[in-house]
Structures are given as structure tokens and as C-alpha cells.
Known about the structure:
Mean pLDDT: 96
Distance between the termini: 21 Å
Number of domains: 3
Bound molecules: flavin-adenine dinucleotide
Strand order of the largest sheet: 6-7-12-10-11
CATH class of the largest domain: Alpha Beta
Strand content: 15-25%
CATH topology of the largest domain: Uridine Diphospho-n-acetylenolpyruvylglucosamine Reductase, domain 3
Helix content: 25-40%
Amino acid sequence: MRGTLPFAVVLNPRLRAELTSAGAVLSEQVPLADLTTLRVGGPARVLAEASTTAALVATVRLLDAAGIPVLVLAGGSNLLISDEGFDGVVVRVANDEIRMDAASVSVDAGAEWDRVVAETVAAGLGGLECLSGIPGSAGATPVQNVGAYGVEISSLLTSVDLLDRASGDVRTVAPDELGLAYRTSVLKHSDRAVVLSATFALRSDGTSAPLRFGELARVLTADEGETRPAAQVRDAVLGLRRSKGMVLAADDNDTWSAGSFFTNPVVAEEDLSTVLSAIADRVGEVTVPRFPAPDGVKLSAGWLIERAGFAKGFPGVDAPARLSTKHTLALTNRGSARASDIVDLARTVRAGVHAAFGVTLEPEPVTVGLSL
Ligand SMILES: Cc1cc2nc3c(=O)[nH]c(=O)nc-3n(C[C@H](O)[C@H](O)[C@H](O)COP(=O)(O)OP(=O)(O)OC[C@H]3O[C@@H](n4cnc5c(N)ncnc54)[C@H](O)[C@@H]3O)c2cc1C
């Protein structure tokens, strides 16, 4: 049963009053399943919603000074939170202004990311269109260097304003301070900073970023490296994403997920031949999708999962947590799943891929109160 955690963290009346006067809206025992796209997770002891940047900064500073555990949450689309919930304060990032000029956009961290993409494209600014349809907030995009269809935000990000939680200072930092890499940064799995806003350089001629993803280029009858009007690319990306259950839809359980659950594994050059022969032993001589990566060769997690014997919809219609019926890489809640069901499924898939090919898949979402 959810909500049975014997909570230990208590906010004293003075701290409550200070948080409220700082602009935080407090509520108690809030089910985190309601705030995450996987729709699992027990209660937050307290939820503090901050809808301005000043309130966000003051809230986190007060909680840090009091030594209260903080979980920063925005869209909840990259979080897997345990059924026990969070014994501390979940700070909901809800500042949401968008400021555009002729060739850039500066957005508050809590702004809904797809609104940012839609508004920039509608204003004739290109660059973000390949990142259409990704759920969650603008402020979380640097956290895991969000990417899709051949574009990562690292190629567009020019600066981030953040609250440095060690010093309590607000600083503007350049992208090269953030350690942005494939689905990670120094901010991921870390309490060191809260992103307050982010600024992206855009293309004032309304064209897209050069198309780098074969499937997308084919849909647009373009060659890789060509550009197209940003609005056309946005439509194509949304179409492709919908066909894979990668755009949130309340009535489609295939989208009750955290997106891709595992990152694509990078195999060191010296281990590649062993992995390739394990694949050949299992599925015969096939072309294995692989891409160059800074520290080895990136394989496709979805391809490995399917070849290890996990079909779309695994383990079957009665299971509360299943692989998406549209996309093997998404673990989904069919309506009644708990976090433990998602974890069990993740462990099964991970163990199966490891047993088949000797490759260990790593989860992409941030886990809270549990591990695989
Ligand atoms: C259907 C679906 C499709 C998806 N497709 C993609 C995709 O194509 N590419 C991709 O990269 N991701 C994808 N994702 C994952 C997810 O949408 C992104 O990672 C998104 O940026 C998370 O934003 P959020 O606001 O929901 O973050 P949350 O889930 O609220 O938080 C995620 C992590 O970031 C931290 N965080 C959030 N906001 C801040 C902040 N302001 N400052 C500091 N830390 C913060 C949280 O503490 C947590 O650790 C998908 C998810 C779903 C459900």
C-alpha cells in the first residue's frame, strides 16, 4: 500500500512560514505517481511548488540550510521513484517564462519543453525542431543532455543560470562547464545545482538543424546533412515519435513510461569482438547496428533487447509493467503497475541481455529510493 512510510523528516513551523513567505506553495503527502510519467512512486513528505525563479532559489536555499533532503522534480518524465516515496521535500520547478529574440531563446527551467520548441518554430526560429515531442521541462534538458533524431541540446545551448547549492550562489555557466555527453552531464545523479533557466542559440532563417538521422531524412525525402523548414521537420518528428509511443497520451499506456529506459551501451574497442561473437552465436551472422562513440562503439539497446528474446509487449497482456507494444526500449505501466513492477521488468531485461551478449545495460531515468 502506498503512503505507509513512517516519515522522519518534519518541517518546523518557522521553516514552513519562511518557505511560504518565499513563495513556495506547500502540500503534504502528495502521491508522486501523480507527478511522474511512469505514474509510479509513493508519496512526498512535502511538495513545495515554486512558480517563480526567486521562489525556486529561496526555497532550495532554505531547505539546504536546514539540512532537509530535497528532490528537484519538474515534468517527472525521467524519474523512477520507489513505492516508499520521498522522505523530504520535493521541490517542483514551475517557473515558466519564455523570452525569444532574433536568434535565441532564453527559458525558465520549469517551462514545458515542447512548448518552447513549438513557440520557437512558430516564430520562425529553427534549431530545436528535432527535439519536438520530448516531455518534461526546459531546465531538465541540460541534466541529461537531451537528444533525439540526431540533435542533442549541447549543440544549441549557450548558457545556463543555476543555483550552486554548495555556495548558495546563482551563477551563469557556459555549456563546457556542464560535462555534457551522451545522456549525461555533471548535473545528473547529483545535488550540486538547480537549473534556473537556459539559453539556446537558434537559426533566424527558420531552417532546421542539418538532418543527421537517416529515418527522419528519409521521411522528409532529404539527404543527410540537408536542412528543411523547421516547421516541416517538427511535424515529421512528431509523426515518427507518435508511431513509437514516444509522445505522451493519457489514453495510450505505451506512453506511460520514462521514454527509453536504457541508454545505448558503449562497448570498448577491445571488448567488441567478444560481444559480436556472442551476438553471432545467438542470432547468426547479421549486421549489428553500431555507431562511433568517444570511448568505444555504441550499440543499440533496443536491438540487443529484441535479439535477446524480449519482444514488444513482453511479458504479456496480464503483466502490470510491460515493454511498450510499439518500442522495445520503453518500459511501460499498463495502469496498475508499482515501481517494484517496473524494477522487476528492468532487472529481467537487463539480466537477459547480459546473459545473451555480456553487455550491461544502464538505466537512463534517475532512480530515487531504489536501484536496479
Ligand atoms: C514518452 C517519453 C519520451 C522521451 N523521449 C526522450 C528523448 O527523445 N530524448 C531524451 O533525451 N529524453 C527523452 N525522455 C526523457 C525525459 O523526457 C527527458 O529527460 C526530460 O528532459 C526530463 O524532463 P523533466 O522535467 O520531466 O525531468 P524530471 O523527470 O522532473 O527530472 C529528471 C532529473 O532531472 C533533475 N532535474 C529536473 N529539473 C531540474 C532542474 N531545473 N535543475 C536541476 N535538476 C533538475 C531531477 O532532479 C531528476 O534527477 C522521454 C520521456 C518520455 C516519458
